[in-house]
Amino acid sequence: MKSQLSNFKSDSGSATAEYAIATMAAVGFAGLLVVIMRSDEVKALLYDLVMKALTVATP
After folding, report:
1. Which residues of 1-59 form beta strands (DSSP E)?
2. Where are the domains of the chain?
3. pLDDT at 10 over 60
4. Which pLDDT tens digit goes with each residue over 13-49?
5. Are 48 and 42 in contact (CB under 8 A)?
6. Does the predicted model carry a pTM greater than 0.90?
7. For residue 36, what are the contacts with CB-CB under 8 A and spacing of at least 6?
8. Which of 9, 23, 24, 42 has the greatest CB tally within 10 Å of its CB?
9. What is the largest CA-CA distance in the chain?
10. CB count, 10 Å around CB of 42?
11. Long-range contacts of 12-20 (CB under 8 A, 24+ apart)
């Protein structure tokens, strides 16, 4: 019985589980960004921002 309890107290594999959870959260966040970036309003906003940044102003 004591050996079975020691198996539950072991942290073996916990780092792998944490990496898996963090990876899934990152994938979910990336998916959300893809959905946001596909909207026409965001595309227009980013396009205007880039165009303003690349335009050379003449004094």
Report:
1. none
2. 13-54
3. yes
4. 678 888 999 999 999 999 999 998 899 999 899 999 9
5. no
6. no
7. 42
8. 42
9. 83
10. 13
11. none
Q: How many CA atoms lie within 13 A of 17 on its CB side?
A: 4
Question: C-alpha dihedral over 50, 41, 33, 52, to 10 degrees?
Answer: 10
pLDDT of residue 51: 92
Whether residue 59 has pLDDT greater than 90: no
* Token pair belonging to 16: 């792998």
d(CA 48, CA 56): 14
Per-residue tokens: 5? 């309890």
Amino acid at 5: L
CA gap 20, 14 in Å, rounded: 10
Task: List the structure tokens of 24.
Answer: 């899934």
